[in-house]
Amino acid sequence: MPPIFVDTDNSNPKAKLYNGSKAGESADKAEAKIQAVVKKFVDKDANFTTTKVGNPKGYTIRIAITKIEKDRSTTCTLSGSIVRYPREVVKSGAKGEHMVNLREWGNHATATGTSESSLLDCVEAVTESMMKSGMGAMSADYLKR
């Protein structure tokens, strides 16, 4: 069986996979951090790949920063979804997305300080937490396809 493809291309501004807009001026860096963590998890598992060859089957991971609070520390909340790649034909004949059942996929963390690096540490910690459960969910769902 070929490796399971995971789409990590966040370059299309009309269809961003990672949304860091709540991070304000740090949005681009936050999105890059999310993308780097997703790639790290995918690349270290031999059953997965981020390299698109031919017409692969796999998943698209979307993650957004939904809340940031700064006081003496930085707390960030992220949420996301995993959908099958490529889009599948639905009953109406159109192509649609099939979400992988994760209930509510997200988490929050707190980092010491209120600097940009604190924000990025927080985003990294939450993304790692999400990917730990996400990798298992994609593996299990792929067996159903």
Concise overview:
The protein has 145 residues and is an alpha/beta fold. Helix content is 30%, strand content 32%. Strands 1, 2, 3, 4, 5 and 8 form a six-stranded mixed beta sheet that branches. It has a two-stranded antiparallel sheet with strand order 6-7.
Textual characterization of the structure:
The longest helix has 27 residues, at 116-142. Helix 1 (27-43) packs parallel to helix 2 (116-142). It contains two helices and eight strands. It starts with a strand and ends with a helix. With 145 residues, it is of the alpha/beta class. The model has no long low-confidence stretch (mean pLDDT 94).
List the main descriptive attributes of the protein structure presented here.
Rossmann fold; two-stranded antiparallel ribbon; 8 strands; elongated
What's the structural blueprint in terms of helices and strands?
Layout: E1 4-7, E2 18-19, H1 27-43, E3 48-49, E4 58-70, E5 73-85, E6 88-89, E7 95-96, E8 105-112, H2 116-142
Parallel strand pairs: 1-3, 1-4, 2-4
Antiparallel strand pairs: 4-5, 5-8, 6-7
Low-confidence stretches: none
What is the top-level CATH class?
Answer: Alpha Beta
Rg result? 16 Å
| Largest β sheet strand count, sense and barrel closure | 6 strands, mixed
Order of helices and strands: EEHEEEEEEH
Total discrete domains: 1
Give the helix level as a range of percent.
Answer: 25-40%
- Strand proportion, as a percent range, falls in 25-35%
At CATH level 3, the topology is Rossmann fold
Mean pLDDT: 94
Shape: elongated
Distance between the termini: 13 Å
Number of helices, where a helix is a run of at least 4 consecutive DSSP H or I residues: 2
